[in-house]
Amino acid sequence: MFIGQIDAEHRDLFQIAEGLEQAMEAHTPPAEVRQHLQALTAHLEEHLSHEEWLMQSVSYPSYGWHKQQHETARRRMKLLVPLIENGDAEAADVFLDFLAGWLHDHTSVADRMMASFVRNYERSHSASALERWGAPAGRAGSHGRGAAAATAAAPEAGPYPKTMRFCTVCGEQTTHEIHGSGLACVKCAERSVRAELDRD
Hints:
There is one protein chain. By secondary structure, the protein is mainly alpha-helical. It contains six helices and three strands, in the order H-H-H-H-H-E-E-E-H. It has two domains: 121 residues, Hemerythrin-like (Four Helix Bundle (Hemerythrin (Met), subunit A), Up-down Bundle), CATH 1.20.120.50; 66 residues, no CATH class. A three-stranded antiparallel β-sheet has the order 1-2-3. The longest helix is centred in the middle third of the chain and has 45 residues.
């Protein structure tokens, strides 16, 4: 998808599902199978909720259609997981077959469409921010003007444009303000302000 956190979550989902399949094929004790199953369902729900939050944050126009696909996976989990927890091997096979096909189809089409929209959203907001805020202070203007002239021509400060990015400090997909000097994570800034207030 070329969205770091989404790609990492997809990799984790496939690995956890593979672990569940291997545990079942090896006829491991039911308690261990349940652990794999609980890890898979918890991770899948967290991932679907994260995707839905991301789509809402960028006003994705196909949100309803995409969420319907998520609801299909949720309904299958709700029906089949209790059966698997009670030792129904056939239900486990049905669930794994469904999940393999659903994940392949969903990531190949719906998630790629969503990711493309998110990346274009970020690009368009970054481009508008560069147009609005101009070159960083100290850089010569396009017609050979000095730094002072470029600074004088800069627009008045106002609310900063925002974009979604994965923050390496927070470790989460967060809102970033686009400043002339670069991107600033709003969550990290809030944490910094709270720390300063606590010290006062």
